[in-house]
Amino acid sequence: MGNKAAVNDLSEVAEKLAAVPRHVAIIMDGNNRWAKQRSLPSAAGHKAGLESVRTVMRACAELGVETLTLFAFSSENWRRPETEVSALMSLFLTALRREVKKIHKNNIRLKVIGNRSRFSKNIQQAIEQAEQLTVNNDGCTVVIAADYGGQWDIVQAARSIAEDVRTGQIEITDITEQSLQSRICLGDLAMPDLCIRTGGERRISNFLLWQMAYTELYFTDLYWPDFGQAEFLEALTDFQRRDRRFGHTSNNTSSNTNNSSEELGA
């Protein structure tokens, strides 16, 4: 399943990294093209991609990454062929039921963001059970963005604020970046430091539009099923070479750790 080169001792790697990002977001692209190259159905690509999810989750937990957000299913993905959407929903449900016990055992907290209303009752129930099981875990937080879109996220936050203005709970003058931030998905977490996109495209495709104001972007031509531990470490190594200024000059910042969430009061 592609280049899955392993590094035996991730703790040694962590010591060599000058700055491990607190929050890594990934646009997992290329499953379909990976399958097509091998004359396989699209479902095979999505199943192969699940192994890359496991690999990156393990690496984040061992390296001390606080949050890993994975773009699993966008609002626009409903437009794909019905057979593919059905296969994705089946894989999502199976993964929720089979993987959550392993996730819980490894002290990982699972969180799902997005519009859940279009999912089946079985999937909605599985999401709630998985979140409830892992809610008290204090290791890495893994966020699955499913039926998610950045524009939808901002709109639902704006509607929430508008409703509070309408009912007199707040004044229009009370609306600030911080108040909107508190109603955006992931508003209680550090904003992403690094966003990785596999598959060769150079865009963020309506993913975490508000949250990635200061995020470093890393693009690779590798398809997601070919993205393993070595490739993830390569992305982190590239990240530590970035000069993150957050609007300041170079001599005002001493590291590339995440300051954007502090600016927004997170």
Describe the secondary structure blueprint for this structure.
Elements: H1 10-16, E1 23-27, H2 31-37, H3 42-63, E2 67-74, H4 82-105, E3 109-113, H5 121-134, E4 141-148, H6 150-166, H7 177-181, E5 194-197, E6 216-219, H8 229-240, H9 260-263
Parallel strand pairs: 1-2, 1-5, 2-4, 3-4, 5-6
Helix pairs in contact: 2-3, 3-4, 4-5
Describe the protein.
This protein is of the alpha/beta class and 266 residues long. It has a single domain (22-148, 192-263), classed as 3-Layer(aba) Sandwich (Undecaprenyl pyrophosphate synthetase). It is 42% helix and 13% strand. The chain contains nine helices and six strands, in the order H-E-H-H-E-H-E-H-E-H-H-E-E-H-H. A six-stranded parallel beta sheet has the order 3-4-2-1-5-6, with helices on both faces. Helix 5 (121-134) links the parallel strand 3 and strand 4 (141-148). The longest helix is centred in the middle third of the chain and has 24 residues, at 82-105. The protein is globular and about 60 Å long. The termini are far apart. Mean pLDDT is 89; it is low at 1-5 and 258-266.
- From the 3D coordinates, which CATH architecture would you assign? 3-Layer(aba) Sandwich
Biggest sheet strand order reads 3-4-2-1-5-6
Number of domains: 1
User: Uncertain runs with pLDDT below 50, 5 residues or more?
Assistant: 1-5, 258-266
Any key phrases for this structure?
266 residues; alpha/beta; Undecaprenyl pyrophosphate synthetase; six-stranded parallel sheet; 9 helices; 42% helix; disordered N terminus
